[in-house]
Amino acid sequence: MSHEASKPVVAKGKQPAEALQAFPQQMILSSLLPLAAILLALFIGAVLIYAVGINPWKAYRFLVYGAFGSPNSIAETIVKSCPLVLAGLGFAFAFRCGLFNIGAEGQLYLGALASILVGIYLKGLPAILHAPIAVIAAALAGGIWGAIPGYLKARFGISEIINTIMMNYIGIYFVSYLVHGPLREPPGYYPQTARIADTAAFPKLIEGTRLHAGVFVALLAAFLVYHILKNTTLGYQIKAVGYNREAARFGGINVSASFVVTMAISGALAGLAGANEMLGVQHRLLDGFSPGYGYDAIAVALLGRAHPAGVFLAALLFGSLRAGANMMQRSAAVPVQLIYIIQGLVVLFVIGSTFLMDRYAARAMKRRVA
Amino acid sequence: MEDLILEARGITKTFPGVKANDHIDIQLRRGEVLAVLGENGAGKTTLMNILYGLYQPDEGEIRLYGKPVRVDSPKAAIDLGIGMIHQHFMLIPNFTVLENIILGMPSPREPLLDLKYAKSKVVELSKKYGLSIDPDAMVWQISVGAQQRVEIIKALYRGAEILILDEPTAVLTPQEAQDLFAVLKTLKAQGKSVIFISHKLDEVMEVSDRVTVLRDGKVIGTVNTRETNTQELARMMVGREVLFKIGKKPACPGTVALELEDVWVLNEKKLPALKGVSLQVRSGEILGIAGVDGNGQTELAEVITGLRRAIKGNVKMFGEDVTNQTPRPLIERGLAHIPADRRRQGLVLDFSIAENMILETYYRHPFARRWILRHDVIRNNAKELIRQYDVRTPGYQVPAKNLSGGNQQKVIIAREFSRAPKILIAVQPTRGLDVGATEYVHRSLLEQRDKGVAILLISTDLEEVRNVSDRLAVIFGGQIMGIVDPATTPIEEIGMMMAGSVGKGPVFSETTAV
Ligand SMILES: Nc1ncnc2c1ncn2[C@@H]1O[C@H](COP(=O)(O)OP(=O)(O)OP(=O)(O)O)[C@@H](O)[C@H]1O
Ligand SMILES: [Mg+2]
What global pTM score does this model have? Predict the structure, then answer.
């Protein structure tokens, strides 16, 4: 079926290597720009710290020390990053299908609840089974919590943004009710559940720190998400729907089913973040235990450009800021509000820098118009 | 020459792996329509985007009234009096026509809008150039042709002396195209200059004064329209003779492959778009559907391909009832679809060519083993199809959005044909294709037919359906007005049927083999 031989041969003979020429330049740029953005944000933060009468140099030394200064602080950074990796992956996964899962927080609470129930009430299991079952229960619970708005979107076309936010309220207050009532630990003084059985807890990796085996769950999840998106038919289908719903439908892809499956997986990842906190760090469910991991996850995912490796790095950045900020607050008396402002600045600037990068790339290779 | 208004010299633009423009010189004179012709991927759109400031050239300069100018953004272009009407309109649907026109323009009464003043100016422009529009209509309510007129007024309102129209007629009905040509002639008479891109040589002959032909990013030559003809233009473009009328063997229809019985379908507004359509397509024949756009063609294609529900009636494939099945089982039965809108419906523009080539088959052997994609097979498949169908691109990994319009269409055609379909629904398969590629698609359709594929060809291009189809059904108001022999039925009669009169020609009974 080929054309007549007389057709002039043009582009075909050209070297694909030419396509790579622009590459090193862009690679350098894409790693330097976010770094510069972080430094700039920290600089503005320094001005603010100075303005409240604290020596910014001293404050930042504590920030760095708190994040990376000792084995313990490195462990803290990683511990704080883990739930962000998982919930961030959740947001990123849905994002690749063109969906905004704002409901990570609620899914995380449901996951935490499921893992705690398994951890407390499923007794007599060996550790090798108990913790994994608790993890799976968390993924299921988070998955169901995510699948519900996914189904509502697929069936009735209701915005998943609104529904996931609503599901957050339901999830968070349902858990709150439970820890104040039916699940409150026996003496009944605090709004918290009993401790999970030791068999359900993630083993500690380094004695004297809080570093726990949940790190591997986060790593595995990042790898799995990467694998699913790159190498599986499901990933292909999800990306096709994300990029162009209509073409996907024309190509025979079931768009509604894709929504439900994607939201279920997204929710499951957020649920894992909850389990990670429960089984690895807190070992019991407290009212309001999450410092907003589910919301930070959105920034983490966007910062990581919805790519698993990017999400991982962005979560580490956030984790180190959190860990370092604790130290900065304790030791340099920087007000906690200021710390949040600095975190906000970092997000803003890094996202801004990626935007700049896109502009640069767009200039080099402007989107075709016709 | 003193009436030279715009001149580009030595324009060169390289994309990764492609030299889209290679030392291009073009000249535009005051009060003329310059047609720019060229194969798909020849570099026309790229050149226009450079003139309009959307791209920066790697080399070369642009001169306006003899002086070199920098056009580094569309805003700069507008300030210099250059306006561009894109093929995909950039209007805001929920604004009125007037609001769209004045969008982003300073008002004489800042910070307040002076709608009255703007309206009077718009009405004046519309009268002066014969661009009939209703300034108070909402954009989503008006036809595609009217939206295009809004775009033109928008450019004129901004003081454009030079108008660039990139394939303006690809989205128009023949009547709307005629109206556009009248407008272009008025513009010309008033001293405006126009650059006009089209793949339809008749249009170029009708509306232009001179023609510049591009091939592979280079200027092949510029000729006066009066001194040339379509054959010569085609030869300049493609570099060989082009057959406008393809010779075809008579069809040998087999059994009935696709059958519709009294099918009723609703459109988006819940009004009946198909009112009891019945037709049959046999293996090894092409049934053409002629009609003015918007008479139920979209709905017809969609109800067959499972994208839209029938509220009454049956669709059968090889005798089996498949009414209201979802697309995938239909595709698995051997149904192929070349949709009308390649960018929205046919391709995932952010996917690579290789990924687009498997849009319907990604989950099956040989492209997947269980749930794992086989990247090597996918890659080789793409390489092979790119070679077979002569897709002009540096490689299979290129995102589909970076292909020229015609090459995007080739990707879809390659994908659909390579699945060895049994039934093919082709909607406007040559929209935006150059003459060579059009000829190629027509030949491919006939080849598929001769292999025994049942083809339903839906097109608003009357020439196309008349040339390619074995039988021709005319659709009007959601009903089939009659089925005629395209070879013997006079064009006037088909035209009458397209306007709603019931056919009286040699109507085929469904059992007659041609
Ligand atoms: N943004 C881009 N990135 C990479 N390559 C591009 C880009 N835009 C255009 N090209 C390539 O440049 C060449 C010229 O494309 P262009 O769109 O100018 O062609 P065209 O003459 O308008 O074709 P058509 O008639 O099909 O619209 C093509 O090979 C195309 O693939
Ligand atoms: Mg073009």
Answer: 0.84
